[in-house]
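User: Please fill in residues for this 317-position structure.
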């Protein structure tokens, strides 16, 4: 019978045998899969696992610092890499969603390759691939898939020539969560909403600038904190705030304002393939809207997305 504990025991033993004294590099994303994969590998090979966590400047407010902290608390050998400016430079002037995604994928690979080169004699690339990623023939999701789509672009980066070790590639998402729980991983990491690899870049419609990122991070933090304190965060499958490329007239005191609009999105879903918009309570929406407009400079209007998938998608880009 499959239990998280039996899975952990046989997997760790198998990894020890397979990897021996070899070194492994692994990119952490802050998400469930890469975190669980890292902890399993850590149990097997300890400091020979070199984790790399890249700050692409497109994460939620304070996420890089807090997630890096919890990784360190778990005892992982993890290096946080501040690559914000490299991503912002690559995104400057881009408005097309697919061009934005490609630029982010390309810079991620460059940064990761630079970091992987710093690890002497590394033999393996660790990945948090889960079973649905394996069977999904064409995937546009996640760093591993981003890497796949770059296969044919002028030769492989060196880290892609490494042997690949994927300890979760037989598991479904709910099993990964159970294994993570049995490993004692922070419930905040295990219970976190899905978050796209390109991050806030695809929630800022049009060109991404550090200023827009900063505004969106503030509004989004107010939204997510309110979902948590109202006790609805865990009932929502995914939520996020979108920065619209629209200015509208407002009034603040005696002043007329002409500022941006953010849209709140929250959906219920099982796997992201279909999704219904969440019927969040009106008074919660009212509180969030007031807090955002009163506290986030540059935003004078908040709207709520009442579209389901299909025909809309969860993200706007
Ligand atoms: P859509 O917008 O297609 O999103 O309804 C379905 C799920 O996929 C996530 N998503 C992405 N994840 N890279 C990712 O890693 C991407 O480019 C990307 N685009 C969408 C989205 O957040 C939702 O969970």
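Assistant: Residues filled in for all 317 positions:
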């Amino acid at each position: 019978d499959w239990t998280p504990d039996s899975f952990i025991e046989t997997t760790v033993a198998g990894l020890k045998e397979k990897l021996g004294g070899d070194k492994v590099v692994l990119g952490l994303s802050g998400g469930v899969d890469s975190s669980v994969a890292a902890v399993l590998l850590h149990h097997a090979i300890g400091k020979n696992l070199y984790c790399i966590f890249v700050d692409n400047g497109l994460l939620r407010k304070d996420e890089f610092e807090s997630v890096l902290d919890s990784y360190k608390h778990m005892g992982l050998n993890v290096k946080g890499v501040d690559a914000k400016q490299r991503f912002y430079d690559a995104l400057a002037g881009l408005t097309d969603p697919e061009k934005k995604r490609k630029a982010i994928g390309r810079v991620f690979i460059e940064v990761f390759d630079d970091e992987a080169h710093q690890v002497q004699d590394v033999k393996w690339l660790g990945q948090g691939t889960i079973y649905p990623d394996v069977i999904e023939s064409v995937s546009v999701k996640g760093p591993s898939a981003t890497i796949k789509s770059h296969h044919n672009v002028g030769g492989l980066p060196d880290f892609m020539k490494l042997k690949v070790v994927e300890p979760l590639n037989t598991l479904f998402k709910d099993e990964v969560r159970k294994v993570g729980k049995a490993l004692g991983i922070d419930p905040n990491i295990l219970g976190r909403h899905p978050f796209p690899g390109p991050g806030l870049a695809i929630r800022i419609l049009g060109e991404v600038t550090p200023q827009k990122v900063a505004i969106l991070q503030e509004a989004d933090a107010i939204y997510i904190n309110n979902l948590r304190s109202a006790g609805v965060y865990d009932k929502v499958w995914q939520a996020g705030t979108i920065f619209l490329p629209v200015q509208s007239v407002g009034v603040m005191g005696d002043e007329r304002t002409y500022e941006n609009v953010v849209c709140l999105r929250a959906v219920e879903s099982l796997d992201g393939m279909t999704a219904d918009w969440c019927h969040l309570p009106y008074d919660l929406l009212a509180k969030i809207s007031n807090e955002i407009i009163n506290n986030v400079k540059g935003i004078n209007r908040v709207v709520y997305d009442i579209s389901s998938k299909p025909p809309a998608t969860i993200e706007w880009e």
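For context: Residues 101, 140-142, 194, 196-198, 238, 272, 309, 313-315 surround xanthosine-5'-monophosphate (CB under 6 Å).
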